[in-house]
C-alpha cells in the first residue's frame, strides 16, 4: 500500500475495507478446538446486523455502552456496530472488580453492557447494583457474547450497505469512544477520544512503519483490547492495512501460540520482554561452556551491528554461521517470522532492547498516553535508537516546556475528560496537551523519557532522581522481576524488590551491586528489601502491568521505614 486512505471515522474505515477485501481473512481465534478465521465481508455483515439490532433494543446515538471481554472477534464487531450508530463504546478490563466497574457505570452514566461470558456478566450486574444504575440497580441491557442473545444480534443476513452508508456521514470530530485511564494515581478518568484522534494515530503509524513494507502480515493480539494502544493498533490500524489479527488464547498459552501462529508482528510491554530475556539467559546458563561461548559471541557481534560498529573480517565470516546456529533458535521462540516487536506502555531499559536487536528481532519502541490516541512517537524501523522512544508521528507537534514536560498538539489530542472540566483545563492549555512526562529531545528530534513529572524523587540534599530509570535498570537484571524505588526527602534511595523465579536474596543483592556500579552516586540504591510480588489482584499492578508505585509504597510502609533508619 503506497498511500494511506482517508476516512471520516473508524466505522466507515472498517466498512470500506470490507468492500475492498471481501474474501480476505481479517480475524482468527481458537474456537471449538480449532483456529477459525472470519473474512472481511462476514465481519461487515455481522457488524451491520449488530448495529441494527442494538438500535432496536434501545441503544441510541450518544449512549455509553460498556464492553468487557477478552480479545475475540466479537469485540471489534460490537465496537464497530456501536460506532456506526453513534453510540459510544466504553472498553473495560476483564480484571476489573465490581467496584471498578461501578465507578465506570456511575461516572459515564452507562445503562447498557456487552460482556463475553456469565462470570463477567455477574460482576457487571453486581456493579450496577453498587452504582444504583437508573435508581433500580438494573442495566437496561446486558448481553453475553457466549449465549443466544448474541447470536440473535448478528443473525441478520442483509448486506451492510445501509449501516455503512449511515456510518459514512459521521464527522471525524464525533466522539468515537470513552477509554478510562488505568488509574496509577487516583480514580480512573474517562478520556474522550474523537474519531480524528485515532485516525491521526493510524496515519502516523502508517508513515512510521512504511520501511517494514508490510504485506500479508499476521499480528498476534494478546494485550487487553480495552487498553488504548491495543484498541488503536490491534483494533483499527493493523486491520486497515490488511494485517490479519489472530487472538491469542491467553497469556498462559502465548509461547505455544507464537509457535503455532508464527506472527510477523507483535506488541509487548517492557515487562514481557524483560521476562523473556531473563528466561533465555537462564537457559543459556545451563548449557555447556562451549555453547555459552557461542551465544555470547553471537550476542557480541549482534550488538556491534546494532551499534553500527564495523565488524572485523573474521566476525563477518562467522556471523552468518552464528545467526543460523544461535540467533535463529531465539527467533524461533517467536515463531521465526517476526519483522518487528512494538514496545510501549512503560520505559524499556536500553540493554533489553539491544539484546533483542542483537539477536535479529527489531524492537520498535514508542511513547504515548491514552489522552493522545494513544501514540505520540515511535522509532523508525530503519533508524532505531533504542535508548529513545523515537520521533513524533506525522501530524504531531511536540515540544518541551521549561521544566522538561512533554507537550503535544494535533488531531491526536483528546477532547477532554468525561465530566471533568477542571481536569481537562489543566491537561489541555492553549491547545497543548500537558503529558505530565519529563523528557529530552536530541538534535534529530528523538525523544527520551526521563520520568513522570510528579514521580521524580527529590533527595534531602536537593538532588532530583528518576525512579523509572533506576527501576528499569534493576528489572533488566535476570535476578529481579519487579522493583520500586523510594526515598523522597531522604538522604538516599531505597528499593522494594521482587526476585525473579529461581533466584534468591543473594542473587538479588549481587544484581543491585552490579546496577549501582553503573549509576551516579545519588542514584545508587543504599538499602533494599525483598517483598511479595506486585499483582493486579493485590492492587499493585494495573491491568496493563504498570506498577502502581504509590500503592506499593503504602503497602510496604513499615518495611520502608526500617530501610530509611
- Report helical residue fraction: 25-40%
Q: Residue-averaged pLDDT, rounded?
A: 93
Structural shape = globular
For the biggest β-sheet, the strand order reads 2-1-10-9-11-12-13-14-15
Overall radius of gyration: 24 Å
State the helix count: 19
How many E-type strands? Answer: 26
CATH fold descriptor of the largest domain: Rossmann fold
The H-level CATH homologous superfamily of the largest domain, spelled out, is ANL, N-terminal domain
Helix/sheet category: alpha/beta
CATH architecture of the largest domain: 3-Layer(aba) Sandwich
Biggest beta sheet attributes: 9 strands, mixed
Poorly predicted residue ranges: none
Overall tally of domains: 3
Explain what this protein looks like in three dimensions.
With 565 residues, the chain is an alpha/beta fold. It folds into three domains: 223 residues, 3-Layer(aba) Sandwich (Rossmann fold), CATH 3.40.50.12780; 182 residues, ANL, N-terminal domain (Rossmann fold); 108 residues, GMP Synthetase, Chain A, domain 3, CATH 3.30.300.30. The protein is 39% helix and 22% strand. It has 19 helices and 26 strands. The strands form six sheets. Strands 2-1-10-9-11-12-13-14-15 form a nine-stranded mixed sheet, sandwiched between helices. It is globular. It starts with 9 loop residues before the first helix and ends with a helix. The mean pLDDT is 93.
Amino acid at each position: 500500500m503506497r498511500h494511506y486512505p482517508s476516512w471520516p471515522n473508524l466505522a466507515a474505515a472498517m466498512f470500506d475495507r470490507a468492500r475492498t477485501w471481501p474474501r480476505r481473512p481479517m480475524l482468527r481465534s481458537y474456537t471449538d478446538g480449532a483456529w477459525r478465521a472470519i473474512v472481511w465481508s462476514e465481519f461487515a455483515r455481522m457488524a451491520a446486523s449488530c448495529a441494527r439490532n442494538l438500535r432496536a433494543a434501545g441503544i441510541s446515538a450518544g449512549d455509553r455502552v460498556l464492553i468487557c471481554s477478552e480479545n475475540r472477534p466479537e469485540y471489534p464487531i460490537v465496537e464497530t456496530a456501536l460506532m456506526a450508530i453513534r453510540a459510544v463504546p466504553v472498553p473495560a478490563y476483564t480484571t476489573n472488580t465490581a467496584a471498578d466497574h461501578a465507578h465506570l457505570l456511575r461516572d459515564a452514566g452507562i445503562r447498557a453492557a456487552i460482556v463475553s461470558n456469565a462470570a463477567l456478566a455477574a460482576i457487571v450486574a453486581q456493579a450496577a447494583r453498587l452504582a444504583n444504575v437508573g435508581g433500580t440497580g438494573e442495566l437496561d441491557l446486558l448481553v453475553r457474547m457466549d449465549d443466544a442473545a448474541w447470536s440473535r444480534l448478528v443473525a441478520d443476513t442483509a448486506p451492510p450497505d445501509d449501516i455503512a452508508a449511515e456510518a459514512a456521514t459521521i464527522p471525524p470530530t464525533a466522539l468515537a469512544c470513552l477509554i478510562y485511564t488505568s488509574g496509577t494515581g487516583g480514580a480512573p478518568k474517562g478520556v474522550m477520544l474523537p474519531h480524528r484522534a485515532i485516525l491521526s494515530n493510524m496515519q502516523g503509524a502508517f508513515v512510521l512503519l512504511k520501511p517494514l513494507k508490510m504485506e500479508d502480515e499476521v499480528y498476534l493480539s494478546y494485550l487487553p483490547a480495552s487498553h488504548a494502544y491495543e484498541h488503536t493498533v490491534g483494533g483499527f490500524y493493523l486491520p486497515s492495512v490488511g494485517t490479519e489479527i489472530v487472538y491469542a488464547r491467553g497469556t498462559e498459552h502465548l509461547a505455544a501460540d507464537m509457535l503455532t501462529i508464527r506472527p510477523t508482528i507483535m506488541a509487548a510491554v517492557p515487562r514481557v520482554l524483560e521476562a523473556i530475556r531473563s528466561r533465555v539467559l537462564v537457559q543459556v546458563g545451563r548449557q555447556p561452556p562451549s555453547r555459552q561461548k557461542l551465544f555470547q559471541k553471537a550476542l557480541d557481534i549482534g550488538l556491534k551491528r546494532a551499534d553500527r560498529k564495523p565488524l572485523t573480517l573474521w566476525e563477518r565470516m562467522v556471523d552468518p554461521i552464528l545467526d543460523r546456529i544461535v540467533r535463529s533458535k531465539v527467533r524461533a521462540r517467536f515463531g521465526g517470522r517476526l519483522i518487528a516487536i512494538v514496545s510501549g506502555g512503560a520505559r524499556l531499559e536500553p540493554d533489553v532492547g539491544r539484546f533483542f536487536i542483537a539477536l535479529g528481532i527489531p524492537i520498535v519502541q514508542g511513547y504515548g498516553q491514552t489522552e493522545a490516541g494513544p501514540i505520540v512517537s515511535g522509532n523508525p524501523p530503519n533508524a532505531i535508537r533504542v535508548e529513545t522512544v523515537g520521533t513524533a508521528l506525522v501530524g504531531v507537534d511536540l515540544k518541551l516546556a521549561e521544566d522538561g514536560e512533554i507537550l503535544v498538539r494535533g488531531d491526536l489530542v483528546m477532547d477532554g475528560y468525561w465530566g471533568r472540566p477542571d481536569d481537562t483545563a489543566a491537561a489541555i492549555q492553549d491547545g497543548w496537551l500537558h503529558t505530565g512526562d519529563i523528557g529530552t529531545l536530541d538534535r534529530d528530534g528523538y525523544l527520551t523519557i526521563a520520568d513522570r513529572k510528579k514521580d521524580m524523587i527529590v533527595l534531602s540534599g536537593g538532588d532530583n532522581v528518576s525512579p523509572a530509570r533506576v527501576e528499569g535498570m534493576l528489572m533488566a537484571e535476570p535476578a529481579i522481576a519487579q522493583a520500586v524505588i523510594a526515598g523522597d526527602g531522604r538522604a538516599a534511595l531505597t528499593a522494594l524488590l521482587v526476585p525473579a523465579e529461581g533466584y534468591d536474596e543473594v542473587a538479588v543483592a549481587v544484581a543491585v551491586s552490579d546496577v549501582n556500579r553503573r549509576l551516579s552516586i545519588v542514584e545508587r540504591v543504599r538499602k533494599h528489601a525483598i517483598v511479595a510480588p506486585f499483582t493486579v489482584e493485590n492492587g499493585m499492578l494495573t491491568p496493563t502491568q504498570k506498577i502502581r508505585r504509590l500503592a506499593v509504597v503504602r503497602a510496604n510502609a513499615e518495611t520502608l521505614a526500617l530501610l530509611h533508619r
